[in-house]
Amino acid sequence: MDSAPEFESVEAFVEYLMDDEVEVFTAADLQALSAATQTSIRRLRVELEGWGLSLAHRPSERRVRGFTANPHDRWHGPGSCPTHGGSGWEQINGFAGQG
């Protein structure tokens, strides 16, 4: 993607967007432009916003719980942090060696 002619420079990218009458750029566009121009993403974003463009909003993915889901969401499901897994005797025994 970064070998495309619109990613050769910031000016070429802005001209490419203006030709299509687009006023927003995506995070993927920023990454491709950064790789092609060897410039940091933060500097590119500031420069593109100086041209009057804006970064496209990325909506967050919705998570819907069902009726049977755990209401505390600690042990199961996305974002869970299971802290179980044994007493640790096996690891402690390994430190002391075989008795």
Topology:
Blueprint: H1 10-19, E1 24-25, H2 27-37, H3 41-50, E2 54-55, H4 89-96
Parallel strand pairs: 1-2
Describe, in plain words, how this protein is organized in 3D.
- This protein is mainly alpha-helical and 99 residues long.
- It has a domain at 5-55.
- The chain contains four helices and two strands.
- It has helices at 10-19, 27-37, 41-50, 89-96, and strands at residues 24-25, 54-55.
- A two-stranded parallel ribbon has the order 1-2.
- It is elongated.
Distance between the termini: 61 Å
Strand order of the largest sheet: 1-2
Q: On the 0-100 scale, what is the average pLDDT?
A: 81
Helix count equals 4
Key phrases:
99 residues, mainly alpha, two-stranded parallel ribbon, 4 helices, 39% helix, 4% strand
In short:
The protein is mainly α and 99 residues long. The chain has a domain at 5-55.
